């Protein structure tokens, strides 16, 4: 399931990115960078589809804002960490 979650999160984020940025090519370098970023999350063991979607969208947003892959990765990692912290602090239902 983890590779399906990563592929699905990338597809979700990229489709939405293209909707917001009509002049971007389907094969833009940002798409490859997104796949590399999400694939690297495999090292953390993260395979929750919802969290991967959040990380993917945050990465693309930060990549546009910061124009730097390393800074975008760090910012998206921070967003992911905040989501993980928030979900772990919620009581079980």
Record keyword descriptors for this entry.
single chain; 93 residues; mainly alpha; 75% helix
Query: What class would the helix/strand composition place it in?
Result: mainly alpha
What about the largest sheet?
Answer: none
Shape: globular
List the uncertain runs: none
Mean pLDDT: 90
What does this structure look like?
It is globular and about 45 Å long. Helix 1 packs antiparallel against helix 2, helix 1 crosses helix 3 and helix 3 packs antiparallel against helix 4. It has 93 residues and is mostly helical. It has four helices and no strands. The longest helix has 21 residues. The mean pLDDT is 90.
Quick summary of this structure?
This protein has 93 residues and is mainly alpha-helical.
SSE blueprint:
Blueprint: H1 2-20, H2 29-40, H3 49-66, H4 69-89
Helix pairs in contact: 1-2, 1-3, 2-3, 3-4
């Amino acid at each position: 399931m983890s590779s399906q979650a990563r592929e699905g999160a990338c597809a979700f984020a990229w489709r939405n990115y293209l909707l917001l940025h009509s002049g971007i090519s389907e094969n833009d370098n940002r798409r490859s960078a997104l796949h590399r970023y999400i694939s690297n999350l495999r090292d953390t063991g993260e395979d929750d589809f919802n969290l991967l979607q959040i990380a993917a969208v945050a990465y693309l947003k930060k990549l546009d804002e910061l124009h730097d892959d390393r800074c975008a990765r760090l910012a998206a990692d921070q967003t992911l960490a905040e989501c993980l912290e928030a979900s772990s602090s919620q009581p079980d239902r």
